[in-house]
Amino acid sequence: MTDNTAGVQQSPPLVEFQNVSVVRDGHRLLDRISLTIPEGEHIAILGPNGAGKSSLIRTITREYYPSCRGPDVTFRFRGRDRWDAFDLRSHLGLVSGDLQQTFTRGISGRE
To answer: Does the global pTM surpass 0.85?
Structure first.
């Protein structure tokens, strides 16, 4: 069997975090999180209340920003360090339990 991947350029991960921390209002929401999500993967983020699930999503979507930068901190989306937040969000699809609360009950699909 031969390896046919020689010469094929692999795309960068969709999301790449190394040692990312987020502090808001004096509270540490994420503490040195490292995470890599390959392009094309579907993932679920599960955990108990207060585990940092929403904070992680808000960091990925750039609603929250890492509290420090440095040579050991990586925060990239599709291989890039800098993005316009609206452009970045156009590349993401999120489904949340909060979605139901966002919309008023009793509306039709057309609305």
So the answer is: no
